Amino acid sequence: MSKAPSAGEGWRANIVIYAALLANLGIAVAKFIAAAFTGSSSMLTEGVHSLVDTGNQGLLLYGQHRARRAPDALHPFGYGRELYFWAFVVAILIFGLGATVSIYEGLQHIAEPEEMHSPLVNYIVLGIALVLEGTSWGIALREFGKAKGALRWWAAVRDSKDPAGFIVLFEDSAALAGLVVAGTGIWASHYWNDSRIDGWASIVIGAILAGVAMLLAREAKGLLIGERADPALVAAIRATLEAEPLITAVNHVRTVHSAPDAVFVAISADFVDTLPMGEAETLIERLEQRLKAQSPQLRSIYIRPEKAENAIDAVPLG
């Protein structure tokens, strides 16, 4: 079992989440104060957006804490997927609280326009928010860029098994887009002296949040259901098995992530017919040790001897 990270290691590993949490908490307070002074609907919805994002980062940290629990009799493969559950909850909250409240406030502001006061306070808060959100977004972009390697950005999101990184990246991207929309709505409302424009800006912000929420929900759903490991890892496992002289065919290599850094693999292989049972057991143990040494994320390995002709997806060797 992997060693639990120290406090310093945990902080460094979660720098993206902590940066986003601190930024969103400060921004939410500032936006609510500005909304109270100016009566801006888009600023109020932006405050709700930042407050929801703050809670989301807290849920991701909680999910990571729960996911690190050791396996037990009830969950023999550990609690790693609990992080995926909380990632799905985050997506629901972005849609249910962020998007819905934003669209509702926008419709209310269009139906019953409120007189807006000087936009100076809003512009100051938006400027501060842009700096803080931009800093958080830059950290998230840098860390996700390191993790994705040579993959394209969208492919990296689809293949990622750690939702914390791309959730914060998408949240911060939506937040920056929302700030631009809010600033545009406030300026247009004063320029044309029509506060209903500010309400439409709130609806646009809600639509952005709804789109991000649906995207994140889809990715979290895939992780909850269970996704296979990186094809390169599967290929490496198969290559190790195929290099063993006492294996005549690799029938299948099936993997599933039980946590971002933990993979369960089930292998069906055809051993040579003359191999005694005792030697087959020794061979299986040796292969498991070799595979875990090559790929530490392989936490659970199951190797089943099976005749190639009995396996549907057998791959003969030689």
Automatic annotation (TrEMBL):
<dbReference type="Pfam" id="PF01545">
    <property type="entry name" value="Cation_efflux"/>
</dbReference>
<feature type="transmembrane region" description="Helical">
    <location>
        <begin position="200"/>
        <end position="217"/>
    </location>
</feature>
<dbReference type="Pfam" id="PF16916">
    <property type="entry name" value="ZT_dimer"/>
</dbReference>
<dbReference type="InterPro" id="IPR002524">
    <property type="entry name" value="Cation_efflux"/>
</dbReference>
<dbReference type="GO" id="GO:0008324">
    <property type="term" value="F:monoatomic cation transmembrane transporter activity"/>
</dbReference>
<dbReference type="InterPro" id="IPR036837">
    <property type="entry name" value="Cation_efflux_CTD_sf"/>
</dbReference>
<feature type="transmembrane region" description="Helical">
    <location>
        <begin position="15"/>
        <end position="37"/>
    </location>
</feature>
<dbReference type="InterPro" id="IPR058533">
    <property type="entry name" value="Cation_efflux_TM"/>
</dbReference>
<dbReference type="InterPro" id="IPR040177">
    <property type="entry name" value="SLC30A9"/>
</dbReference>
<feature type="transmembrane region" description="Helical">
    <location>
        <begin position="124"/>
        <end position="145"/>
    </location>
</feature>
<feature type="domain" description="Cation efflux protein transmembrane">
    <location>
        <begin position="18"/>
        <end position="224"/>
    </location>
</feature>
<comment type="similarity">
    <text>Belongs to the cation diffusion facilitator (CDF) transporter (TC 2.A.4) family.</text>
</comment>
<keyword id="KW-1133">Transmembrane helix</keyword>
<feature type="domain" description="Cation efflux protein cytoplasmic">
    <location>
        <begin position="230"/>
        <end position="306"/>
    </location>
</feature>
<dbReference type="GO" id="GO:0006829">
    <property type="term" value="P:zinc ion transport"/>
</dbReference>
<protein>
    <submittedName>
        <fullName>Cation transporter</fullName>
    </submittedName>
</protein>
<keyword id="KW-0812">Transmembrane</keyword>
<feature type="transmembrane region" description="Helical">
    <location>
        <begin position="166"/>
        <end position="188"/>
    </location>
</feature>
<keyword id="KW-0813">Transport</keyword>
<keyword id="KW-0472">Membrane</keyword>
<dbReference type="GO" id="GO:0016020">
    <property type="term" value="C:membrane"/>
</dbReference>
<dbReference type="InterPro" id="IPR027470">
    <property type="entry name" value="Cation_efflux_CTD"/>
</dbReference>
<feature type="transmembrane region" description="Helical">
    <location>
        <begin position="83"/>
        <end position="104"/>
    </location>
</feature>
<dbReference type="InterPro" id="IPR027469">
    <property type="entry name" value="Cation_efflux_TMD_sf"/>
</dbReference>
